[in-house]
Structures are given as structure tokens and as C-alpha cells.
Amino acid sequence: MKKNFFLILGILLLTSCTKPKKKKPEINPENKLVNWARPGVQGQMSGAYLVYRNELSIPDTLMKAESPQANTTQIHESYITEDGLAGMREMKQIIIPPNADLVLEQGGLHVMLMNLKSDLSFDDTVHVTLTFSQAGEKNVHVPVKAPN
Questions:
Q1: What is the pLDDT of residues 119-145, one digit of tens each?
Q2: Which CATH number is correct for 2-143, 3.40.190.10, 2.60.40.1890, 3.20.20.140, 2.70.40.10?
Q3: Is 14 left (phi over 0), alpha (psi -120 to 50) or beta?
């Protein structure tokens, strides 16, 4: 029952804001992460969105995400059921092809920050560690911004 409450709460949090216009994510010239996170309230949820480039010549697998600012951090996938209901589910692993982008965005794959340890306000920074099977740990500094 508690798990369902957090799932519904997360869906409401992510769908309560106006949806931004869909546009192709931008990657800066150094192929670094282009990212942002939603503001959030202590004890509640937030989402983090980013683009990561697998510069390896072999596939890599995103194994986990962690943040010291949330009690639980997971990679989630948003989806629509056959009945038209929105949902989210945890993704245990995501395979990124060689020289390809992993796009974590609203309405798709994203980092879910659950049970925040403190408020996330505009211009704060969220620290996320992504762990890959080949590239190892990648530390990301995600600025808290309003949705575009």
C-alpha cells in the first residue's frame, strides 16, 4: 500500500507541472552531461533529467543511480497502459549502444529522487552518481531549474 502511495505521488508530481515542448536534447561540444532537476520538498520526490554520451566503442550498461540528497534514487521509465493510464516502473539496467546517447527526460527514462532529505530549491545543485558496467562511476552535478 505504501509503495502504491509513492507511485501515485510520483506520477502526480511529474504530471502536475505543464509539459514542456518536446525538443531534441542538446549535447555540449565536450559530450558532457546536459542536465537539470525539478524543485522538491523534503520527504517528497523530484526528478532529474540529463543526456549522457557513451563514448566507448562497446555497449555500456547503466547499473544504478545514487544521490546523497535522497533516501532512494532509482532509474524509472514512464509509460502509458493499454487503458490510457500513466505509470512509472523502475529500470534495473539500461544498455547504451557504443557512441550513443542515453537520454533521461520527462515522460521517458529519468532519475527518480525519492524521499528527499531536504528541500530542493531553484539554483540548488543535486549530486547524482551514475554507475556503468564499463565506464564506472560518473558524478553529475544537476542544477535545480524550472521545467523549460
A1: 999 989 999 999 999 999 999 999 999
A2: 2.60.40.1890
A3: alpha
